[in-house]
Design brief:
- The protein is globular and about 80 Å long.
- It is α+β, with helices and mostly antiparallel strands and 545 residues long.
- Strands 2-1-3 form a 3-stranded antiparallel beta sheet.
- It folds into 2 domains: 302 residues, no CATH class; 139 residues.
- 34% of the residues lie in helices and 12% in strands.
- The C terminus is likely disordered.
Length: 545
C-alpha cells in the first residue's frame, strides 16, 4: 500500500450524492454519474481539498485536454461525461510517472535519494512550527506532537499541498511557482442551480482549457520530453549560489500544474500499521518521516499560472500572482478574480471561460477562491469562499457591467476607509500616532454590506444584459453605504466612552464622517450627479423710516 500508484490505485477521498464516502482512483471521477454521482472531494483538511482539485485539473489538462479532432469535445463531455474506462485509457500512458514510492522516479519527489537527517512527517504541513520554533519552544499556538503518522493517501495530499503552496522555508528552501501560499480561483457550478447538476466531474472540467489554449500559456511548448512536464523524472535543477533558475523557456507550460520547488523524499520502507492521524483510517501503513534538502527548483521570471489571478506590477509591468491577505476575502476582491482591466488579470481559466463560453450564460456559475495567508514562513490563516460568476458577451453591455462593478466596489472601499478613520478619530486623541491594527473595521463594514452588494451585482448584470437602467442601482448603493457607515460608527465609536472630553471627540468625528459621506468624492466614484446646493434665502425687510 505504501507504494501506491496515483493513477491506478484508489486514494482520493470523495463523497457521492447519496452521502456515501469512499476512496477512488482519478479515472473513476465519472463513476455512477447518471445515478449516484460523485459531488465533492472529501479530504480531512480544506487545504488538501484545494490541492486535490488542482491535481485532478492538472491531470485532465495534461492527459485529456479538449481536442475535437481526438474526440474530446468540451461541451459534450460537460453534459455527458466520459465513461471511467475512457479516462483510464487517457491517464494510463502517464501511470509510470505517478508512483509514490519504489526504486524509480517518485511523484513530486527528488529524483535520487537524499542523505540529510530525516524530519518528522508533521514538518510536511505548512502550519506546523519549524525547527527554530521547536528548539526555542515558541510553538505557542500550534503545538508539536499532533501528527506522528499518516497514511500514504494523506502523505500524498500533504506532499501536493506543500509543493503547490510552498512558502519560504529558510535558506534555499524555494517557494512555489506562484510564490508562497498562492491564491487559486476556479469556475464551479452553483449547487443550487437547476440547469446543470453540480458534480465533481463538472466542477473540474469547467477549468480544463482546450489544447490550443494550452499552447499559449507561459512556458516552452517545444520541449517534448516528459521531464519538462513532470520535473521529478530527471535530476533536480538545483539552485545553489552558482545554480540555475528555472525560467519559462526551461519548462513546458504544463509544468505549471506540476511544480516541484522542494527537494523531498518520503520514507516509505518498513512502515508499521496504525491509525492515520489525519483521516483516522485504522490499520494502514503509517508514513512517519521524510528527508528534505534545500536549493530545489527555483522558478523565476514571469510565470503566469492558469489557475491564479494576477496583477500587473507597476515597476516591471509583469503579471504577479495574487495572494490572500489578512482579513480574509470579501466582495472587494470580486473584480480582481473575475473582471480584467485596471491592472488586474483574472486566472486564465476564469478569463477564458468568461470570454469564450458564453453559451453557458444561463447556467448558474460561481468562482471558488482559496489560499493561505502567509507571513513568510508562517501560515496566518486558510481562506476560501465562493462568489457568483456572471457571463456577458463582448460588447457595450459587458463594458457597462465592468464599469458598474468598479463603481460599486470603489465606493464601498472609500466608505470603509472613511469609517475606519472616523472611529480612530473618536477613539484616540492623536489617531495618526495610534498603534494597533484597526483594519478589522473595514472588514466588518464589507461583511455588513455583502448581501446588498451581491443583490446589486445580480441586478446590474440583468441591466447590462437587457439594456436596463443602472443609475438608480448606484443611488441605492450610496444610501446603503451611508446608513451602514453611520450605524457601524455609532456602535464602535461610543463603546467605552467615559467622560465629556471623549464624547466631544466622538461628536467631532461623527460630524467629519457625515461630511465625507455626503461630499463629492462618493458621487464621483459612483458617477452620479452631484446634488445642487440650495441657495440660502435672504429675507428682505423693508426699511423703516
Amino acid at each position: 500500500m505504501s507504494y501506491i500508484n496515483l493513477i491506478t490505485d484508489p486514494w482520493i477521498p470523495v463523497r457521492r450524492k447519496s452521502g456515501a464516502r469512499e476512496l477512488i482512483a482519478p479515472w473513476a471521477i465519472t463513476d455512477g454519474h447518471d445515478s449516484n454521482p460523485i459531488i465533492a472531494l472529501d479530504a480531512a483538511r480544506a487545504d488538501f481539498k484545494g490541492a486535490l482539485a488542482q491535481f485532478l485539473i492538472g491531470l485532465l489538462q495534461t492527459a485529456a485536454a479538449p481536442e475535437p479532432d481526438k474526440g474530446i469535445d468540451w461541451n459534450h463531455w460537460l453534459e455527458e461525461p466520459p465513461a471511467p474506462e475512457t479516462l483510464k485509457t487517457l491517464f494510463m500512458p502517464h501511470a509510470e510517472s505517478f508512483e509514490l514510492g519504489g526504486e524509480g522516479p517518485r511523484f513530486l519527489q527528488d529524483y535520487t535519494p537524499l542523505s540529510d537527517e530525516p524530519k518528522p512527517i508533521a514538518a510536511l504541513f505548512i502550519e506546523i512550527p519549524g525547527a527554530n520554533a521547536l528548539r526555542n519552544n515558541t510553538d505557542h499556538f500550534i503545538k508539536r506532537g499532533g501528527i506522528n503518522g499518516i497514511c500514504p493517501a494523506c502523505a500524498t495530499a500533504a506532499l501536493l499541498t506543500l509543493q503547490t503552496n510552498a512558502p519560504s522555508g529558510g535558506v534555499g528552501h524555494r517557494t512555489s511557482l506562484r510564490g508562497g501560499g498562492p491564491l487559486t480561483t476556479l469556475v464551479v457550478l452553483d449547487p443550487k442551480g437547476e440547469q446543470l447538476e453540480a458534480t465533481l466531474w463538472r466542477d473540474l472540467w469547467l477549468n480544463v482549457l482546450p489544447q490550443a489554449q494550452v499552447e499559449q500559456l507561459t512556458g516552452n511548448r517545444s520541449l517534448a520530453r516528459s521531464a519538462a512536464i513532470f520535473p521529478w523524472l530527471a535530476p533536480t535543477r538545483t539552485s545553489e549560489k552558482d545554480g540555475i533558475e528555472t525560467l519559462p523557456d526551461d519548462a513546458h507550460p504544463l509544468q505549471m500544474y506540476w511544480g516541484m520547488p522542494r527537494r523531498i523524499r518520503l520514507e516509505l520502507d518498513d512502515l508499521r500499521k496504525g491509525v492515520c492521524d489525519i483521516c483516522a483510517t485504522p490499520d494502514v501503513p503509517l508514513v512517519t518521516r521524510y528527508v528534505t534538502k534545500n536549493y530545489g527548483v527555483n522558478y523565476s521570471s514571469a510565470w503566469e499560472h492558469p489557475l491564479s489571478p494576477h496583477y500587473i506590477d507597476e515597476k516591471s509591468g509583469m503579471p504577479m500572482p495574487s495572494h490572500a491577505q489578512p482579513g480574509g476575502f470579501s466582495y472587494r476582491q470580486w473584480s480582481s478574480w473575475v473582471v480584467p482591466g485596471n491592472g488586474r488579470k483574472p486566472a486564465q481559466v476564469v478569463a477564458y471561460f468568461s470570454r469564450e463560453r458564453n453559451a453557458l450564460k444561463d447556467v448558474q456559475l460561481r468562482t471558488w477562491a482559496f489560499g493561505y495567508d502567509m507571513d513568510n514562513m508562517k501560515a496566518r490563516a486558510w481562506y476560501e469562499t465562493t462568489v457568483p460568476l456572471y457571463l456577458l458577451p463582448e460588447g457595450e453591455g459587458r463594458e457597462r457591467f465592468i464599469r458598474q462593478v468598479d463603481n460599486l466596489i470603489g465606493a464601498a472601499t472609500q466608505t470603509a476607509y472613511y469609517v475606519q478613520g472616523a472611529v480612530k478619530e473618536a477613539w484616540f486623541k492623536r489617531p495618526g500616532d495610534a498603534r494597533g491594527d484597526t483594519t478589522f473595521l473595514r472588514q466588518e463594514f464589507f461583511d455588513r454590506t455583502e448581501a446588498e452588494f451581491y443583490s446589486l451585482l445580480r441586478d446590474s448584470h440583468e441591466a447590462a444584459l437587457h439594456g436596463g437602467e443602472e443609475v438608480s442601482l448606484r443611488e441605492r448603493w450610496l444610501q446603503r453605504l451611508r446608513r451602514e457607515a453611520e450605524r457601524l460608527f455609532g456602535e464602535r465609536a461610543e463603546s467605552g466612552a467615559l467622560d465629556v472630553g471623549e464624547l466631544a471627540r466622538i461628536a467631532r468625528a461623527h460630524t467629519s464622517l457625515l461630511k465625507k459621506l455626503r461630499g463629492n468624492k462618493l458621487y464621483e466614484i459612483l458617477d452620479l450627479p452631484k446634488p445642487k446646493k440650495e441657495k440660502k434665502k435672504v429675507k428682505e425687510t423693508a426699511d423703516e423710516t
